[in-house]
Write a structure and sequence with these properties.
Blueprint: H1 3-11, H2 20-30, E1 36-39, E2 45-49, E3 56-62, E4 67-73, E5 79-84, H3 89-92, E6 96-100, E7 104-109, E8 129-131, H4 137-140, E9 149-152, E10 157-159, E11 163-166, H5 169-185, E12 193-199, H6 207-216, E13 220-228, H7 237-240, E14 250-253, H8 259-272, E15 277-280, H9 288-293, E16 301-308, E17 316-319, H10 320-335
Length: about 350
């Protein structure tokens, strides 16, 4: 596993709808391990092996991250924000924010002193503001425009027991995993075409996945995302299930998921001695898998997720052990996938 590549992805800002920089990083890495690398008009990045094959699998992860947009600048130069994806204003208090306008600048989210009443108990996005040190609005608009995007200014940290914490592990760990799978496959003889897609806009509308699957028309697809770990204090496991870091990749089960793909993934896990965890997605998964399934004539899908603590925060935490297991699982599954694989849940 090339951990340096993951760190580069995490350090490259990509708020939903502004993924260009991370896609360039991802595509540059993939050139060595693909027969074809390209992008499209909605900001997806593609890497392809064996593009002439009729039978195609699409493995998809999203390269965008949650963030903010500039909504208003007041007369004193303080910046007010709109949410870009499922970002919590409570967590933002006291954090550094990096704005990605024509001029990249940094500010801090103001935190009311305890002596002045502290932070409001019921905080909304309208209650927080960013202080860049501007004297007034006239100075601020030399640097910022309404609609400029922003992300947390935060570097990843390596923790004990092979863990990593930082922003945007949702879902740049997925971008990393599908890249490493392609690297593993690049030296093998394949009977099928393999299309890795780093999609855009999953955190806001899943539009990238729709365009990608419509373009590729895959025979099946596996979405690679993250899911909620529950192995830390304060989580009700009776309500949310038991998912632990180091417990292995998580397979989704539910009406969106193709049973035969899951069975084959389980067989690969068994042969490799990889532990699996399971999450229930009775109606929808909340990931790109939902959109991919309903493209074209319909695409059989599965969802393999990385357990993640503290999702949608600047300290998302995951295990490199789980990442390695997921990479090996997907590599094995694809190497053993044949063009005659029957995905029909009645016949198969």
């Amino acid at each position: 596993m090339n951990k340096d590549f993951l760190m580069e992805l995490l350090d490259t800002s990509s708020p939903s709808g502004l993924e260009k920089e991370v896609q360039l990083v991802w595509m540059n890495y993939m050139k060595e391990f693909s027969h074809k690398v390209e992008s499209d008009n909605v900001g997806n990045a593609y890497a392809v092996l064996n593009p002439e094959a009729e039978f195609k699998i699409m493995i998809a992860a999203h390269g965008d991250e949650i963030g903010f947009m500039v909504k208003n600048i007041d007369s004193n130069g303080f910046i007010f924000l709109e949410k870009l994806g499922g970002i919590s204003p409570k967590i933002a208090v006291g954090m550094k924010i990096k704005f990605l306008g024509e001029k990249e600048i940094v500010g801090i989210v103001g935190a009311n002193a305890e002596h002045h009443g502290g932070v409001k108990e019921k905080l909304t996005i309208n209650d927080i503001y960013v202080d860049c040190g501007f004297k007034n609005k006239e100075e601020a608009i030399n640097f910022l425009n309404i609609g400029d995007m922003a992300v947390y200014k935060r570097s990843a940290e390596l923790l004990q027991n092979n863990m990593i914490a930082g922003k945007a592990l949702d879902n740049k760990t997925g971008s990393f995993i599908i890249a490493e799978v392609m690297k593993n496959l690049s030296s093998k003889k394949l009977d099928i075409g393999v299309y890795a897609v780093n999609t855009s806009c999953e955190e806001t509308n899943q539009g990238g996945a729709y365009f990608a699957a419509s373009k590729i028309k895959p025979n099946l697809s596996i979405a690679c995302d993250v899911t909620f770990a529950t192995d830390y204090p304060g989580v009700d496991t009776k309500d949310h299930g038991e998912y632990s870091l180091g417990g292995g990749p998580v397979l989704a089960k539910g009406s969106q998921i193709n049973i035969n793909i899951n069975k084959s993934l389980e067989e690969s896990a068994s042969e490799l001695g990889i532990k699996l965890q399971y999450e229930l997605t009775p109606r929808r998964t909340g990931t790109d898998a939902d959109t991919i399934k309903f493209t074209g004539k319909g695409v059989p899908v599965a969802l393999v997720s990385l357990p993640l603590r503290y999702m949608h925060s600047p300290v998302e935490t995951a295990s490199f052990t789980d990442m390695e297991d997921e990479i090996n699982l997907l590599t094995h599954f694809i190497l053993n996938l044949k063009p005659n694989f029957n995905m029909n849940p009645i016949e198969g």
